[in-house]
C-alpha cells in the first residue's frame, strides 16, 4: 500500500513537496530535487542551492529514502548532477560561503587520479580577490594558481584574480591541490618557471635585463621587504637552479639596490667588515649583500662572494673585468686601507688551508699594496716584477723594484706562495745597480765604491765576470751607456786614430787608471779584432753622417787595414803564393777606362800610412771574436768605402750622390766602372783581389745594374753625339767597356733573370755598332739592305755575342715586317716630302727584298701593315693607292683617286708587290659597287668533278629557272666578238668574245638570292629546293667569269681571281654594281651591250634575269671551232629531252634555243618548245607532299586502283617547221 502511494504521488504529479526556491512553492516529485543526506552539511547545502534557484525540497531523510526506494527515477541530488546543472546554467548564489559550500559538494566524489573533464565549465573556483572563476582545460584562459605555502604572499597583491583564495576549507583546498596535481586543468601549482614568467606582473617591466636597479620597497610598484624575503624563502624551498632568474635583479645589496644574479659577481657577503675594509671595497666597486634579510640557498655562493681573501680577489676581478685592469681600481684608495687589505689577504690561514690557486696569486700580485724600498710608495708586484730586499746591501742602492716586508711570516708568504724572490749579489749589481749608474754619478764616492764592490764580486766568483762585462754601465764620451767590451782603452793611441773618439771610448769620469784597469778586467778592448774593424767602419759612417772633414782619411786607413787583413788571412790559409797572387791581382785589376793596368799591392797602401799608424800592431795579433763569414757580411752593409764624387770620363753614366763613402754592397772598384757606374759608387782607392773577393766585388753585378748601365750609356752617348762632345778616348774606352758588359750579360742566358733583361731592353737602342747605339729591331747579322738610320748589320766585333743578340731581338736576317716598318718610319721622317736619290735607291732595294719575301707567301698573308711605295713624284704612299701603267696609250688623267708608281719601279716588281695594273683598275666609283662572297675555284672544281659531265649544263639552267618561278627560258649561243672600249675595267676585254646567254623571263632575283647561288648546296630559292644538278655552278664547265643582270643590279663572279684581285694573289672575288639611278649602262656601253641591255628584245628586263657565260680559255684551248662544236653538243643533248623535261616542271612553260652569228642584228631561233598555258596546271595535279605520298604507296602498296591520265599538248618548233 505504501509503495503504491509513493508511486501514485510520483506518477500523477501531485504537488506535495515544498521548496524555498523562487520565493517558496509546492512542486511535484518530478520537478523536485531531493537532498543528499550523506553530505554532512546537507541542510546548509539545500538552503544555498534553493537560494540559487534550484528546486531542492525540504523533506526529511526517511522520506527521501522512501522515494529513493519506490521511485528511483526521480531526481536525487549528487555531486555529478549538481555539476551538470551548474555548468549548463549560471546560477546566482546568495553569498560567497554558499558558493564555497556548493564547490565542496561538487568535489565530494572526486577520486585520484582526477578526471578533470567533469569540472570544465564549473564557475566555482574561489579567487583571492573575492570573485569566482570557471574550471577550464589547461591552456584555455588564464592560469589559476593554488598556493601551498609562501606562494600566496608572493602573488596576492599582484595577481589576486589568478590566485585561489587561501581561506577556503582545508578539504576543498586539498581537492583543488589534487586537481592541480593532475596538470590537466587551468588550476596549477606555482613553479619556478611559472614564477619567472610572472615577474612581468610581479615586478616593474623595465627591470628585465637591468643589471642593477634602485629599490624603494613597497613604492611605485616595487616589491616590499616582506615580498623579497618571501621570494628567497620560496626559492630555498622549491628552486634547484637560480640561473633561470638571471634576467631579473632580485639580489638585495646595501644602499637599497637590487642586482642581477651574475656568477662570480662583485657582491660580497657582509661579515661585519672594518671601516677601512668596507670603505676600500666600496671604492673599488664591490657591493655588500644585505644582512638584514634572511637569504639562504645552496647556489647563492655562485653569485655572492664569501667574506674570505679568495672572495675579495674574485670580486675585484669581477669589477675590473680582467686581471690586468685590477691595479687601476685602487687610484682613490688610502694607504691605510691598502695596508689593512694586505694584512687581511696575507693571513696564513688563506694559504695554509689551500684556499689560494694560481689565479688568486696572480690577482694578489697586481694589487698596489706592497711598500717599495726607495720611495716607500705602495706598488704591485708585477710590471715590473718586484724583488725582496737582499741581505747585506746598502739601502741607497735599492730602488722601487724592491719591496719591504713587515714580518718574517710575510716574507715567507711572499717568497713561497707569491714567488717573489731575493736576487743574488751578482744579479743585484747587474740588473739594479750597474744599469742605474747615471743615478750614482752625482754622488761623491759612489762610482768608485760600486766598482770596488764589482771587483770584489769578481774575485769572489770569477763566473760572474762574463755577465758583468756585457752590462752597459760605462758612460761613453757621447753620453751613451755601453758595455765594457764595446769600448776601447784610451791609453792606446793607435786606437784613437781609427775609432770615433766620442763613441768608442769611456768618458772622463771612467778614465782614471784604477777605473780603466777594472774595466779592462771586464773586457775593455786594447786591440782590434773583427768587431774592432767593424767599429772602425761604423766610425767612418758616423763621421760622414756628421759631415766631419776627417771622413775620407779614416775611410782610406780602414781600406789599408782590410787590405792587410785579407793578405794575412790568405797567407794563414796557405793561399799566399806570391806569383799566383801577383798574377791574379794583375788580371783582375785591368783598368778598361784608360787601358793601363793597376797592380793592387797592399804594401803600397800600407806605406802611405806607415808614418802615422802601426798597422802590424792593430792587425798583427788579430782576435777573431766572431766568424769570418759574419764579419764580412756585416762589413758589406756599413757605409765606409771612399768613393769618387765625379766620373773619371765625361759621358760615363754616373750615380749622382753627395756621399763621400758608401757601403761595399753599393760599391765596385774602378776596374768595373763601365759595368756599374750608373747605379753603384766607384771606389776611390786601390785594393787587392783578396779584398775584392771578400767584399763581393768579384761577383757578377745584378741584371738590373747591367741593363740600366747599358741603357744609360746609350742615352749618354746620344747626348754627347747630339752636342758633338764625343772624344776619341771615350770612344776607345767605350769600345772595350761595352764588350765587358755584353760578356757579363751573356752569362744570364738560360736563367730566370734573362726575362727581366728582355723587359728592360724593350724599345731601347742598346746594341753598340761602333759609332752609335741602335735598336735590335733595326739590326740583323745578314741583310741585303743597309741604310742608316733604318737598317744595320751586326759588326764583326760583336760576333762573339751572337747568342745574346739573337736572344734579345737581333735577327739573322730581316723579314717582311721589318721592311714594312722601315718604310713607315721613313715616311714619318719625310713628312710628305719626296725621297732623295739615296733614299729612293734604298727604298728600291727594300722593295726588291719585300718581293723576294713574297715568293713563298702571298701579300695578303704577309702582313696587315700597308706596303709603302714611291709614287711618280717620289712621295711614299700606300701601295693600294698606286697603279703601274701597263696601258701607256691611255691618258694619265683617266684614273681617279690613284697614282702611278715611280718610274724606277718596274712593272714586274710592281706586279710582284701586288700593285694594281692600270688595265685591272675599276673605273667605277666605290659607292656604286659592293663586294660579295665568292667560292674558291678549287672547291668549285671538286663539285664539277663529282658531277662529271658538262652535257647537262642546259638542264641545270632549266631546273634553276623553274625553281626561280620563271615562265620562259631563252638560251642564246652568242658567237660574236664585242667591242672592248667602254668597259668597267680594261682587263675585262678578253671576256667580250663568244658566250652562252640565258634569259630567265619572269624571274627577278635579289642580292641574297644571287649570292646564295655561289655558295655550297643545298640551294633554296623562294621556298623551293634545287634538287637536281649544280644550279648556277654548272656554268663553270664552260665559263670562268659569269655575269648576271637582275633586279637593277649587275653581278660578276671571279673565283679564279683573274679580274678583281691583285695579279700576285689571285684570290676569289665578286662584285655587285648598282644600275639604278646611275649612268653605268651609258658610260660602259660595250660592257652592258653583251648583256642585251638597251636592245629591242621580246622580253622585259625589269622582271627578267640575264646570265652571260663567256667561253673560258679552257673551253677554247683547242681552237675556236672545237670550242663552238662543244657548245653545239650541249645544245643537241638538250634538244633530245627538252620536250619531255618540260612536262615535269612547275613554272616554266616555254624554252627556246637561238644562235647569234657574227654580223647579224638579231639572234636566229633554232628550237622552241612550249606548253599551252591553259593545260600547264595539269602537269602538277598534286601538291609535292601528296605526290610523294602517292609515289610511296605505289612502290610499297598492293592497290590495283585505276589511274586517271591527263593529256597535255606540247608545241614544238625546230628550224623552219
From TrEMBL:
- Record InterPro entries: SACS/Nov_dom, Sacsin_chaperone_reg
Sacsin/Nov domain location:
938-1161
Q: What GO terms are given for molecular function?
A: Hsp70 protein binding
Domain of life of the source: Eukaryota
Q: What's this protein's name?
A: Sacsin/Nov domain-containing protein
Amino acid at each position: 500500500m505504501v509503495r503504491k502511494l509513493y508511486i501514485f504521488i510520483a506518477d500523477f504529479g501531485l504537488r506535495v513537496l515544498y521548496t524555498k526556491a523562487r520565493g517558496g512553492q509546492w512542486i511535484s516529485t518530478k520537478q523536485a530535487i531531493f537532498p543528499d543526506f550523506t553530505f554532512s552539511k546537507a541542510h546548509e547545502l539545500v538552503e544555498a542551492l534553493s537560494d540559487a534557484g534550484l528546486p531542492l525540497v525540504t523533506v526529511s531523510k526517511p522520506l527521501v529514502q522512501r522515494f529513493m526506494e519506490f521511485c528511483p527515477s526521480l531526481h536525487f541530488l549528487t555531486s555529478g548532477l549538481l555539476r551538470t546543472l551548474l555548468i549548463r546554467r549560471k546560477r546566482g548564489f546568495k553569498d560567497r560561503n554558499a558558493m564555497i559550500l556548493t564547490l565542496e559538494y561538487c568535489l565530494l566524489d572526486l577520486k585520484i587520479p582526477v578526471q578533470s573533464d567533469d569540472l570544465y565549465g564549473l564557475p566555482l573556483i574561489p579567487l583571492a580577490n573575492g570573485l569566482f572563476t570557471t574550471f577550464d582545460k589547461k591552456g584555455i584562459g588564464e592560469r589559476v594558481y593554488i598556493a601551498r605555502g609562501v606562494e600566496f604572499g608572493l602573488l596576492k597583491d599582484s595577481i589576486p584574480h589568478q590566485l585561489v583564495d587561501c581561506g577556503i576549507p582545508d578539504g576543498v583546498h586539498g581537492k583543488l591541490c589534487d586537481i592541480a596535481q593532475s596538470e590537466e586543468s587551468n588550476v596549477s601549482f606555482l613553479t619556478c618557471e611559472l614564477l619567472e614568467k610572472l615577474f612581468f606582473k610581479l615586478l616593474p617591466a623595465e627591470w628585465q635585463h637591468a643589471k642593477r636597479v634602485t629599490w624603494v620597497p613597497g613604492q611605485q610598484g616595487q616589491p616590499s621587504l616582506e615580498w623579497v624575503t618571501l621570494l628567497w624563502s620560496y626559492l630555498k624551498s622549491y628552486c634547484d637552479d637560480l640561473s633561470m632568474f638571471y634576467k631579473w635583479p632580485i639580489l638585495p645589496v646595501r644602499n637599497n639596490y637590487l642586482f642581477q644574479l651574475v656568477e662570480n659577481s662583485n657582491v660580497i657577503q657582509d661579515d661585519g667588515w672594518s671601516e677601512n675594509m668596507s670603505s676600500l671595497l666600496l671604492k673599488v666597486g664591490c657591493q655588500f649583500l644585505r644582512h638584514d634579510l634572511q637569504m639562504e640557498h645552496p647556489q647563492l655562493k655562485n653569485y655572492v662572494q664569501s667574506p674570505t681573501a679568495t672572495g675579495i680577489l674574485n670580486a675585484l676581478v669581477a669589477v675590473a673585468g680582467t686581471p690586468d685592469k685590477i691595479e687601476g681600481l685602487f687610484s682613490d684608495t688610502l694607504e691605510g686601507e691598502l695596508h689593512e687589505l694586505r694584512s687581511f689577504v696575507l693571513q696564513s690561514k688563506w694559504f695554509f688551508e689551500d684556499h689560494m690557486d694560481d689565479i688568486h696569486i696572480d690577482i694578489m700580485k697586481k694589487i698596489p699594496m706592497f711598500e717599495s724600498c726607495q720611495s716607500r710608495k705602495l706598488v704591485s708586484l708585477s710590471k715590473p716584477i718586484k724583488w725582496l730586499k737582499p741581505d747585506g746591501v746598502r739601502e741607497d742602492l735599492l730602488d722601487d723594484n724592491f719591496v719591504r716586508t713587515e714580518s718574517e711570516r710575510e716574507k715567507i708568504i711572499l717568497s713561497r706562495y707569491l714567488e717573489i724572490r731575493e736576487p743574488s749579489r751578482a744579479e743585484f749589481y747587474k740588473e739594479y745597480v750597474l744599469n742605474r749608474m747615471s743615478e750614482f754619478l752625482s754622488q761623491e764616492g759612489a762610482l768608485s765604491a760600486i766598482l770596488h764592490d764589482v771587483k770584489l764580486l769578481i774575485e769572489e766568483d770569477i763566473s760572474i765576470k762574463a755577465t758583468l762585462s756585457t752590462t752597459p754601465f760605462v758612460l761613453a764620451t757621447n753620453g751613451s751607456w755601453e758595455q765594457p767590451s764595446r769600448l776601447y782603452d784610451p791609453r792606446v793611441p793607435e786606437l784613437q786614430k781609427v775609432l770615433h773618439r766620442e763613441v768608442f771610448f769611456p768618458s772622463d769620469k771612467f778614465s782614471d787608471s784604477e777605473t780603466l784597469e777594472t774595466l779592462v778586467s771586464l773586457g775593455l778592448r786594447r786591440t782590434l779584432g773583427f768587431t774592432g774593424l767593424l767599429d772602425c767602419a761604423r766610425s767612418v759612417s758616423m763621421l760622414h753622417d756628421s759631415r766631419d772633414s776627417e771622413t775620407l782619411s779614416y775611410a782610406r786607413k780602414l781600406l789599408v787595414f782590410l787590405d792587410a787583413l785579407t793578405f794575412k788571412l790568405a797567407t794563414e790559409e796557405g793561399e799566399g803564393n806570391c806569383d799566383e797572387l801577383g798574377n791574379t791581382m794583375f788580371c783582375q785589376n785591368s783598368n778598361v777606362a784608360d787601358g793601363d793596368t793597376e797592380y793592387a799591392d797592399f804594401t803600397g797602401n800600407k806605406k802611405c800610412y806607415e808614418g802615422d799608424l802601426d798597422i802590424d800592431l792593430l792587425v798583427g795579433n788579430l782576435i777573431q771574436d766572431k766568424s769570418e763569414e759574419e764579419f764580412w757580411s756585416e762589413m758589406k752593409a756599413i757605409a765606409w768605402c771612399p768613393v769618387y764624387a765625379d766620373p773619371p770620363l765625361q759621358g760615363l753614366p754616373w750615380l749622382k750622390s753627395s756621399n763621400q763613402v758608401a757601403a761595399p754592397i753599393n760599391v765596385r772598384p774602378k776596374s768595373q766602372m763601365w759595368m756599374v757606374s750608373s747605379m753603384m759608387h766607384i771606389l776611390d782607392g786601390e785594393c787587392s783581389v783578396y779584398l775584392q773577393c771578400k767584399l763581393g766585388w768579384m761577383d757578377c753585378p745584378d741584371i738590373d745594374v747591367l741593363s740600366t748601365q747599358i741603357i744609360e750609356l746609350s742615352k749618354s752617348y746620344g747626348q754627347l753625339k747630339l752636342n758633338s762632345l764625343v772624344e776619341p778616348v771615350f770612344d776607345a774606352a767605350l769600345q772595350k767597356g761595352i764588350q765587358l758588359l755584353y760578356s757579363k750579360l751573356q752569362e744570364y742566358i738560360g736563367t730566370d733573370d734573362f726575362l727581366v733583361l728582355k723587359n728592360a731592353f724593350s724599345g731601347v737602342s742598346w746594341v753598340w755598332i761602333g759609332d752609335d747605339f741602335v735598336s735590335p729591331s733595326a739590326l740583323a747579322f745578314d741583310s741585303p739592305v743597309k741604310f742608316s738610320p733604318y737598317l744595320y748589320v751586326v759588326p764583326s766585333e760583336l760576333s762573339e755575342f751572337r747568342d745574346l743578340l739573337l736572344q734579345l731581338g737581333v735577327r739573322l736576317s730581316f723579314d717582311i715586317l721589318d721592311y714594312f716598318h722601315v718604310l713607315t718610319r721613313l715616311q714619318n721622317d719625310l713628312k710628305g716630302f719626296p725621297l732623295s736619290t739615296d733614299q729612293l735607291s734604298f727604298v728600291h732595294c727594300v722593295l726588291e727584298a719585300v718581293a723576294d719575301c713574297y715568293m713563298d707567301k702571298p701579300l695578303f698573308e704577309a702582313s696587315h701593315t700597308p706596303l709603302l711605295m714611291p709614287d711618280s713624284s717620289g712621295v711614299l704612299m700606300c701601295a693600294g693607292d698606286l697603279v703601274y701603267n701597263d696601258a701607256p696609250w691611255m691618258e694619265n688623267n683617266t684614273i681617279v683617286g690613284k697614282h702611278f708608281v715611280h718610274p724606277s719601279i718596274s712593272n714586274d716588281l710592281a706586279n710582284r708587290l701586288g700593285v694594281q695594273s692600270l688595265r685591272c683598275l675599276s673605273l667605277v666609283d666605290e659607292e656604286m659597287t659592293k663586294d660579295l662572297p665568292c667560292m674558291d675555284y678549287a672547291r668549285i672544281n671538286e663539285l664539277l668533278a663529282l658531277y662529271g659531265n658538262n652535257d647537262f649544263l642546259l638542264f641545270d639552267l632549266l631546273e634553276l629557272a623553274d625553281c626561280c618561278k620563271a615562265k620562259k627560258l631563252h638560251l642564246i649561243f652568242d658567237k660574236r666578238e664585242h667591242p672592248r672600249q667602254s668597259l668597267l675595267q680594261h682587263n675585262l676585254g678578253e671576256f667580250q668574245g663568244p658566250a652562252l646567254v640565258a634569259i630567265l623571263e619572269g624571274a627577278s632575283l635579289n642580292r641574297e638570292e644571287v649570292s646564295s647561288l655561289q655558295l655550297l648546296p643545298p640551294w633554296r630559292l623562294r621556298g623551293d629546293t634545287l634538287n637536281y644538278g649544280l644550279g648556277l655552278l654548272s656554268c663553270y664547265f664552260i665559263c670562268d667569269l659569269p655575269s648576271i643582270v637582275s633586279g637593277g643590279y649587275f653581278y660578276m663572279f671571279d673565283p679564279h681571281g683573274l679580274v678583281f684581285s691583285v695579279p700576285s694573289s689571285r684570290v676569289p672575288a665578286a662584285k655587285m654594281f648598282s644600275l639604278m639611278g646611275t649612268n653605268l649602262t651609258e658610260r660602259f656601253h660595250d660592257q652592258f651591250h653583251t648583256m642585251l641591255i638597251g636592245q629591242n628584245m621580246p622580253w622585259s628586263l625589269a622582271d627578267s634575269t640575264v646570265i652571260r657565260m663567256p667561253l673560258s680559255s679552257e673551253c677554247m684551248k683547242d681552237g675556236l671551232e672545237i670550242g663552238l662544236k662543244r657548245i653545239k653538243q650541249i645544245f643537241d643533248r638538250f634538244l633530245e629531252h627538252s620536250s619531255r623535261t618540260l612536262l615535269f616542271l612547275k613554272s616554266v612553260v616555254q624554252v627556246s634555243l637561238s644562235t647569234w652569228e657574227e654580223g647579224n642584228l638579231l639572234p636566229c631561233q633554232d628550237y622552241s618548245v612550249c606548253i599551252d598555258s591553259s593545260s600547264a596546271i595539269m602537269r602538277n595535279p598534286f601538291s609535292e607532299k601528296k605526290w610523294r605520298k602517292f609515289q610511296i604507296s605505289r612502290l610499297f602498296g598492293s592497290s590495283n586502283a585505276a589511274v586517271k591520265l591527263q593529256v597535255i599538248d606540247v608545241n614544238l618548233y625546230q628550224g623552219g617547221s
